[in-house]
């Protein structure tokens, strides 16, 4: 099934003499609630776009216990419209990585960032070409922090999903750094272990593990509690460039220039399956490319039943978790990254031309079996599942071995 192109965003600035090195969209990001979209549209600029809200959701946003009278309600509605305007962040350097996080405790009189009272407070971290990380308040566009420490390009960023304001950055200086924004952006740990540029980092939804990949054939798995290396995941034949955890933290996928996606059990290190990228259309001329299906990006769908991949063969692919061939695809050019909308239904992709494209994705009603598995695996490790007094077939299902 071919995915349908829903919309396309293009940079609003003319190409400069150095446009080839400065206009790429290396990163796209949706806020956790799906209310904002950010893209590194090149030219040292990040564009923030408010995502349309349903009328009922807007009413909920405007509700507040302290509302007293129509005047205050009108004032809050005006503040909401002002905060939801499209914004441009001038970062001063080429932007490589983006990551959203909620900032807890955005209430009247709060000391931390000056969010509009009663509105959700959201921050965006940007990883820059000179090694800086700039953290912005989304509603106002104000710069909150400039984090210094990396010696080269900050290629990727990942916040802990639990709202603790722990940020992990991955850099070409071959390190990962852990920052605590609740303590004024203090650097709390430097993780060394890679010998090549670090391309991507991903924190598990349960906040217990961190995966990082570099220009190496192995991925590194770290503990987010002790910041120590748990294990190396070896199996790829070329550089690993992207990784992502499933929504229940029970699966980890890694994508490589070897044209394969490997699916792992992060708790045991066992490789569960391999998805190989074969040519989709014979009409496409691959003769001039050495690595026609070299992968650039991989991500899980919000319900955990699909994967999306972007490869150099100019296709976006969508994979069913239990199938070995794509269930959907879309022709695209020069793809670099992909990300699912948090509520499902479509995928955003970024390209070397500085464009962002939005594609339809399969919508699925999760089975009761999968919902139960997802609920259990959210708090049970593989070892805890294997220790349960239940039938073997049920254990295999809960540990994703029944593909």
From TrEMBL:
Entry superkingdom: Eukaryota
Q: Which UniProt keywords apply?
A: Repeat, Ubl conjugation pathway, WD repeat
Identify the stretches annotated as WD repeats.
Answer: 124-146, 147-182, 191-232, 233-274, 288-322
Please give the coiled-coil regions recorded for this protein.
none
The SOCS box domain, residue ranges: 367-403
Tell me the pathway: Protein modification; protein ubiquitination
Example GO BP: protein polyubiquitination
Q: Matching InterPro entries, A to Z?
A: SOCS_box (IPR001496), SOCS_box-like_dom_sf (IPR036036), WD40/YVTN_repeat-like_dom_sf (IPR015943), WD40_PAC1 (IPR020472), WD40_repeat_CS (IPR019775), WD40_repeat_dom_sf (IPR036322), WD40_rpt (IPR001680), WSB_SOCS-box_domain (IPR051983)
Is Repeat found in the keyword set?
yes
Q: Which SMART domains match?
A: SOCS, SOCS_box, WD40
Cited CDD domains: SOCS_WSB_SWIP, WD40
The answer to whether UniProt assigns keyword Protein transport to this entry is: no
Q: What is this protein called?
A: WSB2 protein
**Species:** Bucco capensis
Per the record, the gene is Wsb2
């Amino acid at each position: 099934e071919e995915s349908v192109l829903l919309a396309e965003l293009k940079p609003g600035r003319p190409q400069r003499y150095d446009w080839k090195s400065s206009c790429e969209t290396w990163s796209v990001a949706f806020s956790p609630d799906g209310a904002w979209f950010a893209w590194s549209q090149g030219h040292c600029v990040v564009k923030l776009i408010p995502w349309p809200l349903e009328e009922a959701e807007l009413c909920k946003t405007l509700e507040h216990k302290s509302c007293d009278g129509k005047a205050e309600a009108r004032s809050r509605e005006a503040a909401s419209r002002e905060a939801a305007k499209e914004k441009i962040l001038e970062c001063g350097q080429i932007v490589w990585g983006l990551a959203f996080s909620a900032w807890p405790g955005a209430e009247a009189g709060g000391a931390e960032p000056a969010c509009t009272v009663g509105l959700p407070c959201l921050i965006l971290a940007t990883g820059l070409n000179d090694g800086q990380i700039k953290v912005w308040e989304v509603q106002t566009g104000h710069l909150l922090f400039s984090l210094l420490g990396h010696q080269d390009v900050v290629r990727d960023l990942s916040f802990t999903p639990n709202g603790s304001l722990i940020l992990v950055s991955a850099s070409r200086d071959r390190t990962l750094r852990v920052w605590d924004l609740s303590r004024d952006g203090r650097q709390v740990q430097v993780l060394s272990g890679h010998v090549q540029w670090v391309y991507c980092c991903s924190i598990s939804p349960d906040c217990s593990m961190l995966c990082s990949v570099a220009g190496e054939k192995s991925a590194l798995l770290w503990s987010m509690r002790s910041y120590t290396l748990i294990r190396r995941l070896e199996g790829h034949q070329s550089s690993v460039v992207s990784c992502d955890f499933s929504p229940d933290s029970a699966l980890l996928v890694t994508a490589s220039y070897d044209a394969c996606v490997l699916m792992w059990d992060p708790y045991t290190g066992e490789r569960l399956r391999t998805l190989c990228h074969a040519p989709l259309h014979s009409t496409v001329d691959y003769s001039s490319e050495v690595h026609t299906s070299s992968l650039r990006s991989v991500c899980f769908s919000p319900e955990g039943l699909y994967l999306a991949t972007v490869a150099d063969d100019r296709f976006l692919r969508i994979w069913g978790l239990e199938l070995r061939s794509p269930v959907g695809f879309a022709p695209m050019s020069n793809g670099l990254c992909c990300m699912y909308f948090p509520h499902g239904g479509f995928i955003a992709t970024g390209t070397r031309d500085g464009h962002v494209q939005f594609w339809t994705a399969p919508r699925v009603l999760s089975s009761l079996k999968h919902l139960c598995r997802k609920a259990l695996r959210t708090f049970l490790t593989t070892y805890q599942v294997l220790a349960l007094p239940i039938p073997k077939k049920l254990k295999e299902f809960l540990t994703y071995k029944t593909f």
